[in-house]
């Protein structure tokens, strides 16, 4: 199954809306920890997900976030 890193950016004034967007949404990402820079002033979030394609990866997010998120397919590589 392909793996993706979902990268979301928002403005500081949008933080409340970003977190409220999850309310009532069925998603395997809900109620799980993820990486975020909001508390350090960056206002970005990252999720590592498995999905058939980029559209399915973004489909794990609430629409409000998905519309503002990039899905990058990634693979593990060995660093020499």
Overview of the structural elements:
It is a single chain. The two termini are 25 Å apart. The longest helix is centred in the N-terminal third of the chain and has 6 residues, at 15-20. The chain has three helices and four strands; from the N terminus they run βαββααβ. It has one domain. Helix content is 19%, strand content 28%.
Quick description:
The chain is built from 3 helices and 4 strands; from the N terminus they run βαββααβ. It is α+β, with helices and mostly antiparallel strands and 80 residues long. Strands 2-3-1-4 form a 4-stranded antiparallel β-sheet.
What key phrases describe this protein's structure?
4 strands; 3 helices; four-stranded antiparallel sheet; alpha+beta; 80 residues
